[in-house]
Every structure is written in structure tokens, then in C-alpha cells.
Design a protein that fits this description.
The chain is α/β, with parallel strands linked by helices. The protein has two domains: about 10-250, TIM Barrel (Alpha-Beta Barrel); about 255-360, Lyase, Ornithine Decarboxylase, Chain A, domain 1, CATH 2.40.37.10. It has eleven helices and 18 strands. The chain has helices at about 10-25, 45-50, 60-70, 85-95, 105-115, 155-165, 185-200, 225-235, 250-255, 285, 380-385, and strands at about 5-10, 30-35, 55-60, 75-80, 100, 120-125, 150, 170-175, 205-210, 245-250, 260-270, 275-280, 295-300, 310-315, 325-330, 340-345, 360-365, 370-375. The longest helix is centred in the N-terminal third of the chain and has 18 residues, at about 10-25. It starts with a strand and ends with a helix. Helix 1 packs parallel to helix 8 (about 225-235). Strands 1, 11, 12, 13, 14, 15, 16, 17 and 18 form a nine-stranded mixed beta sheet that branches. Helix content is about 30%, strand content about 25%. The radius of gyration is 23 Å and the shape is elongated. Bound molecules: pyridoxal-5'-phosphate (PLP).
């Protein structure tokens, strides 16, 4: 197969789903897995997850429409984020999507237009950063961006408006935050904060929606069962798990570990300090935020040469000097045609990095006995058409 390409391991993908599904079935059966579409919005993936009884979590009108296009019904979509368009927002409420209100603007639209929602509306709570260990999260000083704060009047006002607009005075609560460590203690703290809010406002939530931000399919790290157990332990005496649905929104935990990116060495040379290895994959493909420090990778060599080099700087195809993916230390010398395969790169990669200099690469799915091409590499004509119509 011609590089560069992404390869999705279907079995691993399904194991990752199962890890959450089996834990939820056992611990909190009244629950849903809402896959975070932004994490990897490949249509094949969205359609496949739908067949696995997973619903979609979206954060824009575009993602909402994409989920519909991939076969999700409105009631199988969780609509989050502060940038919902008015028409899509109202439509999603009327058609029974689960909608978490995140901005003052949405609250105003809700108040003026909705009289009888049906337990499908939640409020995103702005979580007080002081509840966490400082090494677990960022933004301690300025607080999180999303949701309504309990520390001022914003949360109480939002709760009042949403409950008033519901036919049974019900409301859901949404508690996602990004953490640095994805550790279990983050979810314990989140659940404790949920408990505090539920008791303070005397709510019997229609749903509790927690995270995103889990590990999945990574050896030595917490599993679906660990996270769900931790959340349940804290909340089991606070809510009735038969009438309060638990929603989890894994993205990375579902697709991250199931994807590889295959690249080839296209050139090697020395400057006066080091060995430069140019490959046909770029950081744009696997690290569009330019923040990763290291990768799980393997090398498939074309030749038998086994000379070790102290340092080889692995670079991408772009003409940006900082498109340096990683430095290999004390590894066998790489030659043209050797393959470098990056593992566990399914999250925030293949649909995130844009077409730049070269365009989107192929994506294959590895089944037990077959290999399917599910995204054809983007052609120049495709690129041209997008930008001229
Ligand atoms: C609201 C929400 N849910 C779920 C996710 C998915 O997070 P991850 O891909 O880390 O699991 C995110 C990511 O930022 C998010 O903002």
C-alpha cells in the first residue's frame, strides 16, 4: 500500500467501545455512550459506531448535520458547545436531541422559544478549578471557558430557566473538563462536584453527562470500568440511577489507540550536526496542535543494514523547518523506503490536520480477514473544487 495512509484496527476499536459498554451495562445500565465527533469525524467511523449502539456528541451545526447524514436520528445526538446556531439549536430541542446549554445567548433563545421541553435539556456547569490537584488540569488561574458558574448567579439562573421550560421541571447536568492527566482522581472530583451541585439545587437530574477525556486502550492506564466505577461510587447515594441517565462522551478513548499512521522515508542526508530523515508524513497528519513530545512507533526496514546512529531527526514532508516529528536516538540507520509507523494516533489527527502542501491521505480499515479503503486520498481536483465553489 502506498504511503502515507492511516490504518484503523477494527477489532481494537470495538474492544475500546466494549470496555465502556460492558462497564456501563453492569454498573449504570441507564446510560449512553456519546462518541465525541470532533475527536475524529471520519464518516466511516461515525456510521460504524452507530451500528455499535453508540450515539453522537457534536459541537457545531456542521457536526450535527454530519451526524444526521451518517444515519443518527435526532434523539441519538448530544448537542454541546457554546456556538450552536439558533435554528439548529431550536430544531434539536424540538426533535428531542440531548442539548446541553452552554452560553447566555442560548439561554435567552431557550427562554423566549421553548415552553415544554421533555427532560432532554441540560446545563453545562462551569467547574470550579480549585477542586482539582493543580497538576491535573490547566487554566487554574482564569478558570474554565465553558458552562455556567455556581460561584456567581449564572448557574442558578440557568437552572431556573431550564427547569421552568421543561414539562416536568427536569434538567440534565453536564460536567466535562479537559485534564492534563486523564486520571481517575479527576473523575472522582468531577463526580463530587456533581454531587455538590445536585444537593445544593435539590435536583433530580434527568441525566448526568461526564467527560470526555478518558484513557482507552492504553496499557497501564485506567479503563472504562475504572472510570465508571469511580463516578458511580461517588454518586450512587445521591441520584437514583434508574431515573438519572449517565452519559459519557469518550472520543480519544474510543478511536485513539485503534489507529496507525504509516509513512516512508523519502530522503536522508547529513548537515554538519546531525542526520536529517525526510518522510512522506507530517506533524500536520499526527500532531496538528504541534504539541506532542513523543510517539509510540515501530520501524519496518527495507534493508538488512544494522548500523546504529546516535541521532536521526525525523522530519515531515512540509517545507517548514519545524516540521520535525521526533528524534530517534541510537536506532538503526534509516534508508529510503524504510517505513515508520506511528501507533495510537486516531484522536485529533486524520480529520483535524488540514490539506497543506499535500492533501488528506488514504484511510484503510483492517478487518479480521480484509482491508477496506474507507477514505480515498484527496485529489488536487477535490481541493480545487472546495476552494472555487
Ligand atoms: C464536551 C466534550 N466531550 C467530549 C470530549 C472528548 O474528549 P476526548 O477526545 O479527550 O475523549 C471533548 C473534548 O474536548 C469535549 O469538549
Amino acid at each position: 500500500m502506498e504511503t502515507p495512509f492511516f490504518l484503523i484496527n477494527k477489532e481494537e476499536l470495538e474492544d475500546n467501545i466494549l470496555s465502556f459498554e460492558s462497564a456501563l451495562k453492569k454498573i449504570w445500565p441507564n446510560s449512553r455512550i456519546a462518541y465525541s465527533v470532533k475527536t475524529n469525524s471520519l464518516p466511516w467511523l461515525l456510521k460504524h459506531l452507530k451500528t455499535q449502539n453508540v450515539i453522537a456528541e457534536v459541537v457545531s451545526d456542521e457536526e450535527y448535520e454530519l451526524a444526521l447524514l451518517c444515519g443518527y436520528k435526532e434523539e441519538e445526538i448530544v448537542f454541546n458547545g457554546p456556538i450552536k446556531g439558533k435554528a439548529a439549536f431550536l430544531d434539536s430541542i424540538n426533535k428531542n436531541s440531548i442539548v446541553n446549554i452552554d452560553s447566555q445567548h442560548e439561554l435567552e433563545v431557550f427562554k423566549s422559544n421553548i415552553k415544554e421541553s421533555k427532560g432532554n435539556i441540560g446545563v453545562r456547569v462551569n467547574i470550579d478549578t480549585s477542586i482539582f490537584e493543580s497538576n491535573d488540569i490547566g487554566y487554574i488561574e482564569d478558570g474554565f471557558r465553558f458552562g455556567f458558574s455556581d460561584e456567581n448567579d449564572e448557574l442558578s439562573n440557568a437552572i431556573e430557566i431550564i427547569r421552568f421550560g421543561d414539562m416536568n421541571n427536569r434538567i440534565g447536568l453536564h460536567f466535562h473538563c479537559n485534564s492534563v492527566t486523564r486520571s481517575l482522581s479527576v473523575y472522582r472530583k468531577l463526580a463530587e462536584y456533581a454531587k455538590f451541585i445536585i444537593e445544593k439545587y435539590n435536583i433530580s437530574p434527568s441525566f448526568i453527562d461526564i467527560g470526555g477525556g478518558f484513557f482507552g486502550g492504553v496499557e497501564g492506564k485506567p479503563t472504562g470500568t475504572d472510570y465508571i466505577t469511580a463516578i458511580h461510587e461517588v454518586l450512587k447515594n445521591t441520584v437514583n440511577i434508574e431515573t438519572t441517565m449517565l452519559i459519557v462522551e469518550p472520543g480519544s478513548a474510543i478511536i485513539g489507540s485503534a489507529v496507525e499512521f504509516h509513512t516512508s522515508v523519502i530522503d536522508t542526508k547529513d548537515n554538519d550536526r546531525t542526520r536529517i530523515v525526510t518522510t512522506d508524513g507530517s506533524r500536520i497528519n499526527i500532531d496538528p496542535l504541534w504539541s506532542k513530545k513523543n510517539y509510540t512507533y515501530r520501524i519496518e526496514k527495507n534493508t538488512e543494514a544494522r548500523i546504529k546512529l546516535e541521532k536521526q531527526v525525523i522530519c515531515g514532508y512540509t517545507c517548514m523547518d519545524h516540521d520535525r516529528i521526533m528524534s530517534l536516538l541510537d536506532e538503526n540507520i534509516l534508508s529510503i523506503g524504510d517505513r515508520l509507523i506511528y501507533e495510537k494516533v486516531g484522536a485529533y489527527t486524520m480529520t483535524f490536520g488540514g490539506p497543506f502542501i499535500r492533501y488528506f491521505p488514504d484511510v484503510y480499515v483492517q478487518n479480521k480477514n480484509s482491508l477496506d479503503l474507507v477514505r480515498k486520498r484527496m485529489k488536487v481536483r477535490d481541493y480545487y473544487d472546495i476552494h472555487t465553489k
